[in-house]
Amino acid sequence: MKMLSYKFRVFVVVICACVFSQGAVAAETLSIVKKRGHMQCGVSQGLPGFSNPDDKGNWVGMDVDICRAVAAAVFGDDTKVKFTPLSAKERFTALQSGEVDMLARNTTWSMHRDTALGVDFTGVNYYDGQGFMVRKELGITNSLELDGASLCTNLGTTTELNAADYFRTNNMEYEIVAFEKADEAVAAYNTGRCDAYTTDQSALYAQRLKLTEPGAHIVLPQIISKEPLGPVVRQGDNQWGDIVRWSHFAMVNAEELGVTSKNVDTMKTNKNPAIRRLLGVDGTFGTNMGISNDWAYNIIRTVGNYAETFERNVGKSTPLGIARGVNALWTQGGLQYAPPVR
Amino acid sequence: MIDKSIIQRWRARVGQRDVLAQIAVAVALFLAVYWLIDNVVSNLERQNVASGFGFFNERAGFGINQTLINYSEDSSYGRVLMVGLLNTLLVSVIGIALASLLGFFIGIGRLSQNWLINRLALVYIEIFRNVPLLLQIMFWYFGVLRNLPSPRNSFTAGDVVFFNNRGLILPAIEAGPGAIWYGLALLAGIAAVFWFKRRAKQARFVAGEILPVWRPVALVLVVALMMAFLLAGVPFSLEIPVLRGFNFRGGISVIPEFVALVLALSLYTASFIAEIVRAGIQSVDKGQREAAAALGLSNTQALNLVLVPQALRVIIPPLTSQYLNLTKNSSLAVAIAYPDIVSVFAGTTLTQVGQAVEIILVTMLIYLSLSLLTSFIMNWYNARVALAGGSHG
Q: Are A126 and A166 within 8 A, CB to CB?
């Protein structure tokens, strides 16, 4: 009897993570992580620029950097983190069940997820939105010119709904071709089955690299939905949530204050009190969270500030070639804004 | 001693014993099912999962690229279920027809005296039944799609029919009010088939005469169609597809996902059917063929009247399994974006509504009903051929 009921639950959980909406609350993630000696971080199964194994098998990307930053804050060592690749369906279940300590898996912060799945979003490390990729030869520059187009996309995502809303609102016809796996959707677009491939814009840049001729395709600048991507922790463990939240804020504050991985050691002697507080020279901000006071110093020393991780993983000099855009600092017309360390 | 007599009496009552055993099994089964349902319901309540079928009337909000009935984003999830079900049925029915036809010919080819035909049939069977179906679906989809031109450079027949990587685009036939006469003419043709067949059969049994069937049927059909033409003229018009922007508008389009799926399903299943047909024909005693020849039947007559009816008795039961397999295998459609019931209902609808139990249950019930229906039809047909075959039945 127990066995069957368990199997049934597993079956439901695999399809619908919301079953465990009142999942177990573990308020001691930090002590568990410290005792274990490493942090376990849930990432994607391979999305260039965000979380993807490099040619040596090491995980790299913006999401990976957030995980490394948290490890650096807790252990003073950014290598004390292990990565668990998760599918979109598995991700919340893996977090709720304690299989991973945090998620950094290009996950959209939506109200349903935040309020009904027993998880908390700690911030936005990448402001994204749904966009379109088309062939350059079509000569299209605006998604409003896509009337009558065939669209390849991923089955069962909000993408399908966003596209339907967008085309209908603008009185345009479309044909949707929805694949269960992203790889097949991209392959079908590549063969010419569709005029456009639509998903989160950052993923468009990433998937473009997998096409036979990436240079022959452009990502249209228009965005048709809000997709704020950020790290996720279990609801109810505020201390752990604070550590993950402020690891991201430390990187954004470091960029704003001009602290980089190169100059962080000399910055320690800087007179600017904001820098001194950030790097743990003044104050007890680290010990208040249950970790050492040089937590942010360790993050910046090993991972770098927000600009560094952005440019290293998705920026202009990388194959993805994404401009800062809305992910620029608030002081430069973007949305990245971190509360002060004070 | 008493014990022994009880046992002996018990043993004697074979009939009662069987009835009791059956009642016990039935009660156990009922309890098991009841417990399962109760368990599901209480689990759902405990975890505060929304339940019920209210979502069937909610707005679906997403598009589907092949719909046999009217559907838009404003349609309900119930409508989505119907669209998906019809798409599954379409691919299954056409797949079954093609697989049967192809399988039958290859099965006969496998028995051919001609070395080349024999070997070709063998190679076909060994290739198609030994490669996993999903790979074959992927092959037909991506392998063929890659070599098709874009809509602007479509292959075309007379600028009426177009073939490109968006599919096969055919002109739509629009029927006016006079079309009813042509419908009646066709009905007359079908009625003629039955009538002349019955007449020929009677003549054969009563007088041993062989009467023509197809020539008089053709005559009736031609006369009926001519009368329809005189009464209604030509009430049909063609809606020719035109290239506007990215795609063709107007006409009927057969999407490449459908073509790839039907191809893969029927080629794969045909290899199994071929072996079944071969076994069926080989099961008919050699003496039957010789007896038919001795009676003066031609080769075709021997095949149609003596060999095939007897072979069918062996062929039908395993053939039914293949039809069931094909229908269930059509759920692999989800891999290549064919909007079948698993894709639009157990896929998109499930992720949007989140009520996994209800949706999976409904989907399973539908596949079960489809399978039972297929079995029912095939069993009915089997009973008919079994009866016609006589003692073996």
A: no
Asked if the structure places residue B225 within a domain, the reply is yes
Q: DSSP letter string over A118-182? A: SEEE---SEEE-EEEEEEGGG---SGGG-TTEEEEEETTSHHHHHHHHHHHHTT--EEEEEESSH
Convert the pLDDT of each residue in A92-125 to its tens digit: 778 877 899 999 998 889 887 787 777 899 999 9
Same-domain pairing of B378 and B279 = yes
Q: Is residue B54 situated within a structural domain? A: no
What distance in Å separates the CA atoms of residue A125 and residue A113, rounded to the nearest whole number? 17
The pLDDT tens digits for B49-85 are: 556 788 899 899 899 999 999 999 999 999 999 999 9
Contact list in B for residue A167 (CB cut-off 8 A) is 63
- What are the angstrom distances between the C-alpha of B130 and each of A47, B109, B133, B134, B393? 34, 19, 9, 12, 33
Q: B77 with B349: CB under 8 angstroms?
A: yes
- Looking up residue B270, the CATH number of its domain turns out to be 1.10.3720.10
Nearest alpha-carbon partner for A112 in B61, B360, B50, B53: B50
A149 touches chain B (CB under 8 A): yes
Distances (CA, A) of A184 to A153, A163, A179, A180, A312: 9, 19, 6, 8, 28
Query: Do residues B216 and B120 both lie within one domain?
Result: no
Residue A269 has pLDDT above 70, yes or no: yes
Q: What is the mean pLDDT of residues A41-49?
A: 89
- Among B188, B206, B236, the domain boundary falls at B236
Residue in B with minimal Cα distance to A167: B63
Q: Are A59 and A52 in contact (CB under 8 A)?
A: yes
The whole-angstrom distance between B370's CA and the closest CA on chain A is 24
Identify any residues that bridge with B76 across adjacent strands, giving them in sequence order: B59
Indicate if the pLDDT at residue B326 is higher than 90.
yes
* Among B142, B246, B352, beta carbon nearest to A148: B246
Both B129 and B156 in one domain: the answer is yes
One domain for residues B98 and B214: no
Helix (H) or strand (E) holding A81: strand A81-85
Span A236-251, average pLDDT: 95
- CB distance from A157 to chain B under 8 Å? yes
The count of domains in chain B is 3
Of A1, A147, A184, the CB nearest to B336: A184
Mean pLDDT across B378-393: 70
Q: What is the pLDDT of residue B136?
A: 95
Q: Which of B236, B263, B288 finishes a domain?
A: B236
The secondary element (H helix, E strand) that includes residue A72 is helix A62-75
Domains in chain A, ordered, with CATH? 26-127+229-332 (3.40.190.10), 130-225 (3.40.190.10)
pLDDT number for residue B387:
62
- The amino acid occupying position A162 is N
Q: Which residues pair with B59 in a beta bridge?
A: B76
Cβ separation of A193 and B40 shorter than 8 Å? no
Q: Checking DSSP bridges between strand A149-154 and strand A174-179, what pairing results, if any?
A: parallel
Q: What distance in Å separates the CA atoms of residue A17 and residue A8, rounded to the nearest whole number? A: 13
Q: Give me the domain span that covers residue B225.
A: 174-236
* Same domain flag for B248 and B298: yes
* CB neighbour class for B115 (10 Å; exposed up to 12, middle 13-18, buried from 19): exposed
Over residues B172-201, the mean pLDDT reads 87
- Does residue B68 lie within any of the structural domains? no
| CA nearest neighbour of B374 among B149, B170, B88 | B88
Clarify whether residues B99 and B148 are in a common domain. yes
* CA angle (A225, A228, A233) in 5-degree steps: 145
Q: Are residues B155 and B298 in the same domain?
A: yes
Higher pLDDT, A246 or A10: A246
Decide if B64 is inside a domain. no
Query: What are the residues facing B157 on neighbouring strands?
Result: B161
pLDDT over 60 at B339, yes or no: yes
pLDDT of residue B392: 44
The answer on B100 and B28 residing in a single domain is no
